[in-house]
Amino acid sequence: MRDASIPDMDPRELMRDLVRPEAYPLPEPARVEVLETPRSLLFFTEADVYKVRKAGGREASEAEVAQNGRYASGVYLGVVPIRRDPSGAASFVGDGAVVGWAVHMLRLCDDARLDTRLRARRFGDADADALAAHLAAFRTEGEVRLDHVWMTDDRAITILGGGDPRRLARELGPLGDRLLETYQRLA
């Protein structure tokens, strides 16, 4: 088998197989939601997220866990094999042949996502300062997106990915100026 994250199967077939609750470890989820992005397929259970990269293979998935685990302590749980079950369907359980790899993550609360907090007007100056300090502590390449930042009311911050806050600042409007000023002072 080639070292690929998307198995040698049609992505539609993979989505069909991995929306089955029985394709997941116990306790079996009640339902599975799927989100397709340009670079990956994401499978959401009540408690977990499984991200199947469209390119890059096991090594790229392991690198993502190592890199992003710095910003999101406790969120990245590892890289897990996608296997063929006895019926030939893709699954995260069993001991069948490995046909691909997925990044396994803890599912975070949607209400804590930054874009949700902004819509609910639950993000202010102190939040912008806390986020800027967090970003300055973990400088890397790339842009930060609103839907990749979680912040609880006590300002515990989790960022999937990391990097340059300029895009995030543009999306924050007036609070974005404060975020950039604080970031530049701390970076």
In short:
The protein is 32% helix and 22% strand. It has 187 residues and is α+β, with helices and mostly antiparallel strands. It folds into 2 domains: 11-107, 2-Layer Sandwich (Phosphorylase Kinase, domain 1), CATH 3.30.200; 111-186.
Number of strands: 8
The average pLDDT is 84
Please describe the biggest sheet, giving its number of strands, its sense, and whether it closes into a barrel. Answer: 6 strands, antiparallel
Strand order of the largest sheet: 1-2-3-6-4-5
In percent, how helical is the residue content? 25-40%
What coarse outline follows from CA principal-axis ratios? elongated
Unreliably modeled segments: none
Under CATH, the topology of the largest domain is which? Phosphorylase Kinase, domain 1
Strand content: 15-25%
Computed CA radius of gyration, to the nearest angstrom: 18 Å
Order of helices and strands: HEEEHEEEHHEEHH
Distance between the termini: 44 Å
CATH class category label of the largest domain: Alpha Beta
**Class from secondary-structure proportions:** alpha+beta
Q: Helix segment count?
A: 6
CATH architecture of the largest domain: 2-Layer Sandwich
Number of folding domains?
2
Which SSEs are present, and which pair or pack?
Layout: H1 11-18, E1 33-36, E2 40-44, E3 48-53, H2 57-68, E4 76-84, E5 90-91, E6 98-106, H3 114-119, H4 125-137, E7 149-151, E8 157-159, H5 166-172, H6 174-186
Antiparallel strand pairs: 1-2, 2-3, 3-6, 4-5, 4-6, 7-8
Helix pairs in contact: 4-6, 5-6
